[in-house]
Task: inverse folding
């Protein structure tokens, strides 16, 4: 990508909330400079350019394509294929794209069950919107459908990380992506003594509000479910993880430390190895709250109206 | 033979929307639809989860206004669990909410809306955006970018995450505000208020005079309005009573938990978002621009219309000027942008008011809660309009049913009416060009979906 012309960037969103794009805008002082270094050729949140939409998308050619959101309708799939064809380097932008994110929570039910709940139907009314894109059987991450060159995790990714990744791609270098766990970037005090059960977050953690976060005891050791050990860090940039700054335990929004890791199994391992009773967790399925793509979270059967969940490794929670 | 003109995706808005305009054999507009094309199913996948976790999940409905979903959900969960918050819990939540409104209004006016007004109308698509603004008016753009980010940075200092927040918890707030933190936030808040006043003066001089004349036909319709007021009829964003105003000016007030007695929802074929209308008017729903039925609007213009006054001084002066020019209720859709900047001034003034309240630094910020069976309805005024979260829990405090009505959903009906009206006035004999299509999109951008 070295040379005379500015690199062409495309931003496409699928099943997304636009948080990733807003995070890019949060790079502040750096933003105007960044916008001047590249040529953005497609970015529906910020600029006009139509790409059609009946079966085929006519996206402009780009050097780097950023795709946020997960793949959950046939229209997303068509758009993603078009983007892959039209860009040289494809970046999975944010946790929905890398691991399914919150939208993949729907994988605990069939598409039909979701539609029935959202559109229960009333007498004399159409029960479903018929002229909208069809839902896929489940929600997929981007790499399940096309080849991906880089995964930039985060819900949303930190502005400095996004800016740094764009800058390295502009110069043709390999971007450095977060690799440490949340725990490795967390300054709270760990003693090795764990609570034997996991409690719900119904009271605030114990800490002295006059003291900095470095003086607070590790939230997991306090018996709160904190996904720090099994979640990739970087949400606070170089600073303390953001939820911990708010004195709130991590819920795993950056996805697993290794991209093929399984946050549920890894977390159960962490708890078991410290002698913590994992049955005290009210909703074990929530350990995959942000990483339910790749078939990890899926609907299996209905028992008396209660939907159970299975995850890789044939473990069943009930 | 009929022809369909499709605008897809609608750009410079938040979310996935498309417009389909139907022309008859003579090339005149016979129908137009604006629909939301993406379905996630939050009502389904929160079922079974512990209610106290929901405020951290529903933030992903929108990355621009995650605070609004976070807070409406937290209030609904409080109600399910019968929690009674300490004053600092409410004050800190409201402080976060108004800060989030500030970033959103700057984003919406300058990044999404203003390129239509500040950059020549025949300019190419490649410059009619914030990047074009950076090139054409670098000083203004730099200040806009800086001020929008300041609101976000203040939120991070106060609450950790600004996007997809976590600090509002069942029963209150996760951490108290320190006294020195309060002082530094106050200084930053004053900067934001200065900017808000500048932005409104700038827009009144450079933007509004031209656009009200040139774009007069864009989306001009007559509807009712819905917003939140306090017991004195003052504009409120965080809490209060819902006030629904009929197009003829009469009003009815109701508490959020009674929403189902006043508002009705209907599934339509072309949108994953249901259409909401004023069922209490007893006239049903019609999207015919000549005589819309059951149609009311939410968001900035609606709130400015339904309130009797604004309880902060600068914003009240602006409201009086607005009313003297446009009357009450003002109906012109592009006045959403003007109302947006009045609300920006209000939000900045409210930041300073909240930070000036001694109770906000009280270390007691959260009441312990006990999971229980119950039903709770939480509501806030989001930038895009009245937001309602309605949950039912079982005896373990896990969700058994959820219903959400988001700001955009209320505005689906009026957006359809506006788009059809605009399309009919701009398209003759089947002739369309980019400028016409953009004007039709402007009718959507005013509402801020």
Result:
């Amino acid at each position: 990508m070295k040379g005379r012309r500015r690199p062409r960037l495309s931003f496409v969103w699928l099943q997304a909330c636009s948080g990733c794009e807003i995070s890019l805008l949060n790079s502040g002082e750096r933003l105007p400079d960044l916008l001047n270094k590249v040529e953005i050729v497609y970015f529906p949140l910020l600029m006009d350019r139509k790409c059609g939409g009946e079966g085929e998308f006519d996206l402009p050619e780009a050097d780097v394509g950023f795709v946020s959101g997960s793949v959950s309708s046939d229209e997303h799939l068509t758009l993603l294929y078009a983007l892959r064809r039209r860009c040289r380097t494809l970046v999975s932008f944010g946790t929905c794209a890398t691991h399914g994110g919150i939208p993949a929570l729907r994988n605990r039910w069939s598409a039909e069950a979701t539609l029935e709940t959202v559109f229960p139907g009333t007498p004399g009314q159409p029960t479903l919107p018929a002229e909208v894109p069809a839902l896929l059987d489940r929600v997929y991450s981007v790499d399940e459908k096309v080849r991906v060159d880089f995964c930039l995790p985060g819900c949303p990714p930190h502005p400095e990380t996004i800016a740094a990744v764009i800058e390295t791609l502009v110069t043709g270098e390999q971007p450095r992506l977060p690799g440490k766990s949340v725990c490795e970037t967390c300054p709270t005090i760990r003693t090795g003594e764990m609570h034997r059960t996991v409690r719900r977050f119904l009271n605030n953690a114990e800490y002295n509000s006059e003291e900095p976060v470095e003086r607070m005891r590790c939230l997991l050791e306090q018996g709160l479910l904190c996904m720090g050990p099994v979640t990739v860090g970087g949400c606070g940039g170089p600073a303390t993880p953001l939820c911990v700054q708010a004195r709130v335990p991590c819920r795993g929004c950056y996805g697993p430390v290794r991209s093929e890791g399984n946050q549920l199994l890894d977390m159960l391992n962490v708890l078991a190895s410290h002698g913590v009773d994992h049955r005290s967790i009210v909703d074990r399925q929530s350990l995959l709250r942000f990483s339910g793509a790749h078939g990890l979270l899926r609907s299996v059967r209905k028992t008396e109206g209660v939907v159970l969940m299975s995850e890789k490794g044939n473990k069943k929670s009930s | 033979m009929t022809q369909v003109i499709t605008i897809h995706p609608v750009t410079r808005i938040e979310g996935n929307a498309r417009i389909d305009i139907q022309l008859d054999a003579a090339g005149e507009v016979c129908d137009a639809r604006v629909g939301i094309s993406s379905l996630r199913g939050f009502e389904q996948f929160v079922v079974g989860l512990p209610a106290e976790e929901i405020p951290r999940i529903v933030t992903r409905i929108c990355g621009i206004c995650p605070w609004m979903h976070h807070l409406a959900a937290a209030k609904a969960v409080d109600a399910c669990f019968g929690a009674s918050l300490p004053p600092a819990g409410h004050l800190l939540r409201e402080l976060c909410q108004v800060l989030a409104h500030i970033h959103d209004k700057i984003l919406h006016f300058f990044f999404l809306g203003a390129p239509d007004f500040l950059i020549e109308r025949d300019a190419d698509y490649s410059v009619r955006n914030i990047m074009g603004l950076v090139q054409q008016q670098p000083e203004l753009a730099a200040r806009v970018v800086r001020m929008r980010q300041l609101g976000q940075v203040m939120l991070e200092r106060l609450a950790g995450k600004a996007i997809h927040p976590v600090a509002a918890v069942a029963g209150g707030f996760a951490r108290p505000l320190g006294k020195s933190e309060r002082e530094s936030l106050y200084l930053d808040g004053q900067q934001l208020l200065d900017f808000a006043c500048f932005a409104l003066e700038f827009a009144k001089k450079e933007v509004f005079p031209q656009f009200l004349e040139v774009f007069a036909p864009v989306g001009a319709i007559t509807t009712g309005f819905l917003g939140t007021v306090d017991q004195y009829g003052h504009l409120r964003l965080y809490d209060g009573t819902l006030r629904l105003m009929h197009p003829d000016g009469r009003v009815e007030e109701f508490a959020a938990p009674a929403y189902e007695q006043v508002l009705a929802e209907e599934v339509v074929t072309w949108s994953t978002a249901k259409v909401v209308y004023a069922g209490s008017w007893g006239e049903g729903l019609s999207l015919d621009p000549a005589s819309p039925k059951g149609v009311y609007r939410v968001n900035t213009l609606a709130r400015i219309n339904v309130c009797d006054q604004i309880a902060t001084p600068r914003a009240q002066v602006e409201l009086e000027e607005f009313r003297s020019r446009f009357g009450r209720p003002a109906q012109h859709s592009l006045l959403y942008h003007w109302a947006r900047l009045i609300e920006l001034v209000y939000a900045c003034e409210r930041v300073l008011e909240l930070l000036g309240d001694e109770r906000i630094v009280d270390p007691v910020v959260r009441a312990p809660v006990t999971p229980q069976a119950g039903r709770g309805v939480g509501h806030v005024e989001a930038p895009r309009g009245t937001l309602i979260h309605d949950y039912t829990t079982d005896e373990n405090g896990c969700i058994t049913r959820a219903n959400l009505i988001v700001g955009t959903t209320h505005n689906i009906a009026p957006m359809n009416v506006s788009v059809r009206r605009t399309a009919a006035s701009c398209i003759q004999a089947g002739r369309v060009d980019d400028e016409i299509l953009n004007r039709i999109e402007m009718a959507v951008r005013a509402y801020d979906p």
Summary: Residues 178-298 of chain A form one domain. Residues 303-318 of chain A have pLDDT under 50 and may be disordered. Chain A has eight helices and ten strands. Chain A touches chain B through 83 residues (CB under 8 Å).
